Structures are given as structure tokens and as C-alpha cells.
Amino acid sequence: xxxxxxxxxxxxxxxxxxxxxxxxxxxxxxxxxxxxxxxxxxxxxxxxxxxxxxxxxxxxxxxxxxxxxxxxxxxxxxxxxxxxxxxxxxxxxxxxxxxxxxxxxxxxxxxxxxxxxxxxxxxxxxxxxxxxxxxxxxxxxxxxxxxxxxxxxxxxxxxxxxxxxxxxxxxxxxxxxxxxxxxxxxxxxxxxxxxxxxxxxxxxxxx
Length: 207
Known about the structure:
The chain is an alpha/beta fold. It has two domains: 4-132, Rossmann fold; 141-206, Winged helix-like DNA-binding domain superfamily/Winged helix DNA-binding domain (Arc Repressor Mutant, subunit A). Helix content is 49%, strand content 14%. The chain contains ten helices and six strands. Strands 2-1-3-4-5-6 form a six-stranded parallel β-sheet, with helices on both faces. Strand 3, helix 3 (62-69) and strand 4 form a beta-alpha-beta unit. It is elongated and about 60 Å long.
């Protein structure tokens, strides 16, 4: 019996192309969505065997949905993305996600991926594995408190410690204390602008 599959992507052409391709190949596509919130509702409703999700979607990302499903459902998550992002890759590994494909290779790899995942075997794009599998796993951004994430977001927006203090109605000293905690938790070098560089490079994780 073919596994039941839901697809979600906020790019209409990507979604239609992938859906049409898989239907033509006789895969059991039971529904599709164009944003993360809709995708999660469909997963809860249908409890599909596999969900193929874009990493970056409005309302909920593919990683957000994977976290919500992690201990509640047996749906196996496959993520697709345009980005070769080390942090996304390691977060996917932490969540025991079954599949991870680059969109540029999706039509070439999707059948091998779905066939492997249906058998319970993880499938990650070779290009992603070759690039990131030997890296040291970074600290999860979720180790930060909500206050620390807010401060990191403001740092990414080039706000100074004084400006952050005014916006959050706290003292400059408290801001500096939070920054120190962030540096320790993320194991960053305390060199000049190290925190700013990290915030800029990873801004999409705490928007």
C-alpha cells in the first residue's frame, strides 16, 4: 500500500510541480498546503505517513511543524529547501527528521527519498551531507530564553545596548548581562562584533 503523503510549500510553482510529478508517479498525495499553519492542521486531520514540507513558510516553518509533531504523531517529516544552511541541517538531525532535500535536486531525488523514508530509512541530499556532516553541531537557538532571543533580534537590527535598554525598558547593565549569557550559551568568541555577526548570519532563526 502506498504511503499517504501531504505536501506544503509557499511557492505555488514548486508545490504544483512537485505534486503533479508525484501524482504522475502514482504516489498517494492526499492533500497540500501553502503555509505552515495550514500544513500542520492537515497533518493533525489526516495523520499522513509522510509530510513533505518547505523549511521556510509563513506562520510555521517546516522545522516548527517537525517540533510539534516530534512526540505527538508518527508522521515522518521530509524537509525541502533552497538554502544550504548548516543550522537548519543540524536542527533537522536533532529532531530525527527522515528526509532533507535541496529543491534544485528535488525532482531527481524525491522518489529515492520517499521510498527510503517509507521503509523507515532517513534520506538526506548527498550535497548537504557532504557539506555539513563533518561539522561540530551548533548550540540550538532554543537554548536561549525569550528575552535573550528578543535581544539577539534587536542586535541583528543594529540596535545599540542603550537603544535595546530603552526599547525593552531595562537597564543597559541588564542588556550587557544578557549579551554575556548569550555568548556563553552559543559558545561564541567574545571578540569585538562576534555577537553581531552571529545575529546577522542567523537572523532568520529568531524572526
